[in-house]
Amino acid sequence: MILIRKGSCPKSWRTFARTPGAAFTSAPKDDLRASLIREQGFICAYCMRRIELGVDVNGASRTRIEHIKVETKSLNEGHPEETLDYSNMVLCCSGESSGQRHCDLNRRDRDLRLSPLAITDMENIRYSSKDGTIKSNDSMADCDLNEVLNLNNPVLKANRSAVLGEIIRQMNAAKWARSKMVAALAEYENFDQESRKHPFCGIAVWFLKKRLQRL
Length: 215
Hints:
- Helices cover 42% and strands 8% of the residues.
- It has 215 residues and is mostly helical.
- It has one domain.
- The strands form three sheets. The chain has a two-stranded antiparallel ribbon. A two-stranded antiparallel ribbon has the order 3-4. A two-stranded antiparallel sheet has the order 5-6.
- Strand 5 (125-127) and strand 6 form a beta hairpin.
């Protein structure tokens, strides 16, 4: 999981949200998804795997629009306008990998104590270099990572571990100098020329920052 910096709300969504009686369930969402996926670099807001727009073979969207504050909670509290608030939305993957449910599909309507939009929450994120486990220094956020979002299922751990393993392999083979580590960190932190980020880039950023601090 990495920090997501929200951009401007799409004009079409702003117009729709201001329409009397507008409801999220009936909203046209193409422009919304396109804006969300660009600001995230085409990776899932929670697990960081690659996401793409469009539909699958069954005609279902390949992505899921996620409300940081649960949509049903906003409705139950009498604040339907919150369900249309762009600053409360991120984009997630389908939520399933090899039969394992994760991300918002596993979360359902449960509250989250951490948010990929909160700097402090993301600064508390760390990883295990042994097996790719994602952790938090905050115990409640750690519960979210494991139980609510199920981000430590075997498939996601293996993917994160593979990314880290490749970085370590290259680093050892070429005996990276500090300048090369800095360049690699910038590559994993930033968007590429196609406005994309590396899948599972969070573990790479964590590892490279840790290594640079030791030099």
